[in-house]
Design goal:
The complex is a heterodimer. Chain A is mainly α. Chain A has one domain. Chain A is 74% helix and 2% strand. Chain A has a two-stranded antiparallel sheet with strand order 1-2. Chain A is globular, with a radius of gyration of 21 Å. Chain A starts with 5 loop residues before the first helix and ends with a helix. Chain B has one domain (2-102): Helix Hairpins (Orthogonal Bundle). Chain B is built from four helices and no strands. Chain B has helices spanning 2-19, 23-44, 61-67, 71-102. Classes of the chains: A mainly alpha, B mainly alpha. Chain A binds chain B through residues 129, 132-133, 136, 140, 143-144, 147, 150-153, 155-160, 162-163, 166-167, 169-170, 173-174, 177, 180-181, 186, 229-230, 234, 286, 289-290, 295, and chain B through 10, 14, 17, 23, 26, 30, 33-34, 37, 40-41, 44, 72-73, 76, 79-80, 83, 86-87, 90-91, 94-95, 97-98, 101-102, 110-113, 115.
């Protein structure tokens, strides 16, 4: 378990090194930061592969908990960490060509690595205050990255995101202060033990409410979604891929699951499932009407997050398994779709669906990969989205909620409808005369899109029993059984 | 009693964020809200006639424990002030850039994104 701190240290050091090296070279050499960022994300991804099926704790400076700071790895954080670092690697690969259009690339890579360090920290942190600090590191970096273009739209979106995210962070800090006032420790496992032994009084309820509200803002669950459809389209494409693919899941969903299930031992009845259903329907309906490609994808993210929340809210073993499977799948295909939109924007300079058409003829790789991603997300066999949505629907029926299953199927039909709309407007149909000379997207962008398109097929194999037991089942165990987490820390 | 004052300060900040139309006033509301939480945290460790939590050889352990203030909230508040500074600096920077683009701080006139 001695490798755990490096998941935070390496990207932090990389961010510092990039800025430092560029001061030395007077910001002339772009290649340094590109190579450094890609090597770091690749190294981190390779490191996460060895983390599967392991669990344990790292104690910083030999101060044993509850006094010291500890990092905890269990099935859920291992699963999340591998997907975060995988998407981060493809996003940095994509950035090599895409970010040429911006100035100050070096700061982009530095902020990107800071965001990554924050997210890895959130996934590993074993006490509440560090959770807050890492959430803030990741959030502040993402506020800056959303406004990276410094055009009017981007600044407005960034400010909106910052205000809503800032309120959420203050709520988290207030909730942590309330917890500390009651139990006098900050270590998650010890607080969990103390909560299990004490009665669930009004102050604890209020704390839990603050946590759920704050993490719902970060996860953009309706009605807390207002920042997402502005912030995700405004960011540069690889950042949109990161935000939609992993940031809302790490800072929002993961933290919420950890706090609700493992710390408070509270499964919320069907509250989460209802929130999920509302998100599915409202997100889907709003996505149908969009003509901006990235805005459509952003609303679709809200809708798909709804599926994950629905699965987790059911609270059965199958439901949680399906939700985690959908979480992995959604990271893969939504990142791919945002990269497709970035690739189109790179060549055409527009995100408006009306101005596109017939792009399959000139950009076959972008068109092909986006078709794969669209079919996956709408739940067409044999792609991964089909299996995870099917499992969620089966879990709904199995737990005795056929109405939930009906709405999930209806939401799935909406998904199919708006992705067919996107395909029809952008990639099929007649090619405009002015776009005849458009070329395929540059090499590295194509490579990262192809990697993710292959993953759309490969992640289906996670359902094979051997792979499922190695990857998904440990995470499900952690959510269902709060004692496994406590046993890791309290010896 | 003092905790209720903290809560009132918190809601003043929240009011500023939700009801004010000026970007700078929103940032100010945000600062007020953050400091209310910081104040709450630091009050948790407060003791009447408390001493600094540094143990010297002449002190007895039980006396030290009874009199010293709780050092942990102070450490937390230091960190959270630094984080708050970063967020505030970023907010103000973006607000200045917005003023350059739109020529106004009024959020009712800054609404190019909707739907």
């Amino acid at each position: 378990m001695n490798t755990l701190p490096y998941f935070v240290l390496i990207p932090l050091a990389g961010a510092f090194l990039i800025v430092f090296l560029n001061v030395l070279t007077k910001n002339k050499v772009r290649v340094i930061s590109e190579i450094l960022a890609n090597m770091i994300t690749l190294a981190l991804f390779i490191m996460t592969i060895f983390m599967f099926n392991k669990s344990g704790m790292y104690v910083i400076g030999k101060w044993v908990p509850p006094l010291g700071i500890n990092l905890v790895l269990d099935g859920l954080s291992a699963l999340m960490m591998s997907i975060v670092n995988l998407i981060a690697f493809t996003a940095t690969l994509f950035s090599i060509n895409y970010m040429r259009r911006y100035t100050a690339n070096n700061y982009y890579y530095a902020l990107f690595l800071l965001m990554l360090a924050g997210m890895n920290g959130v996934l590993l942190s074993g006490d509440f205050f560090n959770l807050f600090v890492f959430i803030e590191i990741a959030s502040i970096a993402s506020y800056a990255l959303v406004g990276f273009g410094t055009e009017a739209d981007e600044l407005e979106a960034s400010f909106k995101y910052m205000v809503m995210g800032g309120i959420a962070s203050t709520f988290i800090l207030l909730a942590i202060a309330l917890l500390y006032s009651q139990f006098g420790v900050l270590n998650m496992a010890y607080i969990s033990k103390a909560i299990a032994n004490s009665e669930f009084n009004i102050l604890l309820r209020f704390t839990l409410f603050l946590f759920i509200a704050a993490f719902s803002v970060k996860a953009a669950i309706i009605p807390f979604h207002a920042w997402l459809p502005d912030a995700h389209p405004a960011a540069p494409a690889p950042i949109s891929a990161m935000l939609s693919g992993v940031v809302i899941k790490t800072l929002g969903l993961y933290a919420m699951i950890r706090v609700m299930y493992n710390i408070f031992g509270f499964n919320g009845g069907n509250m989460l499932a209802y929130m999920g259903l509302i998100s599915i329907m409202v997100g889907g309906l709003l996505a149908l009407g969009q003509m901006d490609m990235k805005r459509l994808l952003a609303y679709s993210s809200i809708s798909q997050i709804g599926y994950i929340i629905l699965g987790i809210g059911l609270g059965t073993k199958l439901g949680i398994l399906a939700a985690l499977f959908h979480l992995v799948n959604h990271s893969v295909f939504k990142s791919l779709l945002f990269m497709n939109s970035g690739s189109v924007y790179h060549r055409l300079g527009t995100r408006n669906l009306d101005e596109m058409g017939g792009l399959n003829k000139v950009m076959p790789i972008t068109g092909g990969t986006s078709l794969i991603a669209s079919l996956s997300i709408s739940g067409m066999p044999p792609f991964n989205g089909f299996f995870s949505k099917l499992l969620i629907i089966i879990a709904c029926i199995q737990s005795g909620h056929p109405i939930f299953a009906f709405w999930a199927i209806a939401g799935s039909i909406f998904t199919l409808a708006y992705y067919m709309k996107m395909q029809r407007y952008a990639f099929f149909g007649a090619l405009k005369e002015s776009y005849k000379s458009i070329k395929e997207s540059p090499f590295f962008m194509s490579v990262s899109m192809i990697i993710l398109a292959i993953l759309c097929l490969v992640t289906s194999f996670l359902l094979i029993p051997q792979l499922r037991d190695a990857v998904l089942t440990p995470a499900v165990e952690v959510i269902l059984n709060a004692d496994t987490y406590k046993a890791l820390v309290i010896k | 009693m003092i905790y209720i004052l903290c809560l009132i300060l918190f809601f003043i900040g929240l009011y500023g964020i939700f009801c004010k139309k000026n970007l700078i006033k929103i940032v100010l509301g945000f600062i007020i809200m953050e400091n209310a939480v910081n104040l709450f945290l630091i009050l948790l460790g407060y003791k009447n006639n408390g001493i600094a939590p540094i143990m010297t050889k002449s002190m007895r352990l039980d006396e030290f424990l009874a009199r010293s203030v709780d050092p942990l909230p102070q450490a937390l508040v230091l960190t959270s002030i630094v984080i708050g500074l970063a967020v505030t600096a970023l907010m103000v920077a973006v607000a200045i850039r917005i003023y350059e683009r739109f020529g106004t701080f009024d959020i009712t006139e800054i609404k190019r994104l909707k739907g």
